[in-house]
Specification:
Elements lengths: L7 H6 L5 H5 L2 E5 L3 E8 L12 H19 L5 E12 L6 E12 L3 E9 L5 E13 L1
Antiparallel strand pairs: 1-2, 2-4, 3-6, 4-5, 5-6
């Protein structure tokens, strides 16, 4: 379902001068029905108490889901934008990296739904998110 012909390096290069680049988000893999990425837990992504900021987790979730959504459609005639996102933060992280995997749940003509699971370096669940994307005509 996802267009796997675009190299991961190009996907990361296209994030230049964006929030993803600012937070250090990198795409690591694109599969048939999923996209994976990672984000550092550092001074850019921590809240004042030294923990991973929940908003940073949401940025990682929406970044992966949004990119994945646009890899499903014909980008010559359509584009996708976020419609709704929610997140449950289940574990704190203080350092290292977090890893996101966005998996498509529904790919309709006008909407897509994505499930995003974010884990720490020991594969513990940190955040679970659901993203709804609108599919629009150019």
């Amino acid at each position: 379902m996802l267009n796997q012909s675009i190299p991961v390096e190009l996907l990361n290069k296209n994030s230049a001068n964006s929030m993803g680049e600012h937070l250090g988000i990198e795409v690591t893999e694109v599969g048939k029905d999923y996209i994976c990425g990672k984000m550092p837990v550092d001074n850019r992504t921590r809240q004042p108490f030294g923990l991973l900021h929940g908003g940073a987790s949401v940025v990682l979730a929406e970044s992966l889901g949004s990119l994945g959504a646009n890899l499903v459609i014909d980008m010559n005639t359509q584009y996708c934008v976020g419609l709704e996102i929610n997140a449950n933060h289940v574990r704190s992280v203080r350092e290292g990296y977090v890893f996101g995997k966005a998996t498509i749940v529904h790919a309709g003509k006008t909407t897509q739904i994505w499930d995003i699971r974010i884990t720490d370096t020991e594969a513990n669940l940190v955040c679970i998110s659901r993203l709804t994307m609108a599919v629009l005509k150019k």
